[in-house]
């Protein structure tokens, strides 16, 4: 394909060469006629005389004196296939730069290690992840808990580094955990969350009662709840609290992706609230949680719902639409 700014197409090159070779025009005159340099006109005339095609040639060099030998390339591919090593380990084993190993693997279209069968080394087809979204608010609510390490007085090591460990007693005793209970609506991503002291069945059941009241105030009727297989959610008390009108669905064991929307909420709060600032006590961090939740529900655009906020998908959410 010709460069978009090229003055000559292949047909234009042929006409230029014909004027010079067959009609006897001088190179300079033909170049002025087609508004190109004499060197360009001479090039296409020479190729026309030789019967060569008047299309662009590849810019790839004809020879690469520094390229690895075929034997070395085959050695790299053999190590990848038989031992399933990555570029770094192959580089160390053969004494070849890691970037060179990576280029060889790419040249031979070697699949990523996470997409090959561990027994045979052959690529396997992975099923595409199924992403679903309910059509109305309340059709499904994801419920989960997250253990969050309490911030010690004076600040934690994530912000203060080694100094935070030494000054705040790390290594002698732990500071315990806070248990964040979440309920996230699948369709709107509207979230209700509380910081509690444990994840026992009584705590989980009482939390759901308050969460259900929150969704009801927003005009959302919860039809189903999805939880993991934790003991507090499998208890008879939690089932009784849900009642007969709400279906209880469980995630597959060891598959947190099934409850992915609340897992993503956990990641968001860790990045944008829990560890986003330096808190000099756990109480100081907890005091900012309600404001952050309001920001998440009313002001933070969510890429999973096209840049909208959860409030945009819940038309009568308290504090947004009255």
Write the layout of secondary structure elements.
Layout: H1 10-21, H2 27-34, H3 38-50, H4 70-83, H5 87-94, H6 98-107, E1 141-149, H7 157-160, H8 162-167, E2 177-185, E3 191-196, H9 201-217, E4 224-227, H10 231-234, H11 236-242, E5 247-250, H12 260-274, H13 282-287, H14 289-298, H15 310-313
Parallel strand pairs: 1-4, 4-5
Antiparallel strand pairs: 1-2, 2-3
Main beta sheet strand tally, sense and closure: 5 strands, mixed
How does the helix and strand content classify structurally? Answer: alpha/beta
Rg, rounded, reads 33 Å
Content of β-strand: 5-15%
The overall pLDDT, averaged over residues, is 86
- End-to-end Cα distance, whole Å, is 60 Å
Note the total helix count: 15
Helical residues, percent: 40-55%
How many DSSP E strands? Answer: 5
Shape: elongated
Instruction: Sketch the topology as an H/E string, one letter per element.
Output: HHHHHHEHHEEHEHHEHHHH
Low-confidence stretches: none
Strand order of the largest sheet: 3-2-1-4-5
């Amino acid at each position: 394909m010709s460069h978009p700014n090229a003055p000559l197409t292949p047909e234009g090159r042929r006409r230029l060469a014909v004027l010079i070779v067959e009609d006897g025009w001088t190179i300079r005159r033909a170049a002025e006629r087609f508004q190109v340099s004499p060197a360009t006109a001479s090039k296409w005339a020479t190729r026309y005389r030789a019967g060569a095609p008047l299309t662009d040639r590849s810019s790839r060099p004809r020879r690469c004196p520094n390229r690895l030998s075929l034997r070395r390339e085959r050695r790299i591919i053999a190590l990848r296939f038989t031992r399933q090593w990555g570029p770094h380990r192959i580089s160390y084993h053969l004494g070849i730069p890691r970037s060179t190993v990576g280029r060889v693997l790419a040249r031979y279209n070697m699949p990523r290690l996470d997409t090959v069968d561990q027994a045979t080394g052959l690529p396997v087809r992975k099923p595409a992840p199924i992403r679903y979204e309910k059509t109305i608010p309340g059709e499904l609510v994801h419920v989960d808990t997250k253990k969050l390490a309490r911030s010690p007085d004076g600040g934690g090591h994530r912000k203060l580094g080694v100094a935070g460990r030494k000054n705040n007693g790390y290594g002698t005793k732990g500071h315990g955990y806070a248990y964040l209970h979440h309920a996230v609506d699948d369709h709107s991503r509207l979230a209700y969350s509380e910081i509690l002291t444990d994840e026992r069945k009584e705590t989980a059941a009482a939390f759901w009662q308050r969460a259900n009241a929150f969704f009801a105030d927003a005009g959302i009727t919860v039809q189903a709840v999805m939880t993991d297989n934790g003991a507090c959610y499998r208890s008879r008390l939690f089932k009784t609290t849900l009642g007969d009108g709400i279906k209880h669905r469980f995630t597959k064991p060891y598959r947190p992706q099934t409850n992915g929307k609340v897992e993503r909420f956990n990641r968001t709060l860790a990045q944008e609230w829990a560890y986003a600032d330096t808190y000099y006590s756990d109480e100081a961090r907890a005091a900012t949680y309600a404001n952050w939740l309001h920001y998440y529900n009313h002001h933070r655009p969510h890429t999973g719902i096209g840049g909208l906020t959860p409030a945009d998908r819940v038309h009568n959410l308290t504090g947004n639409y009255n």
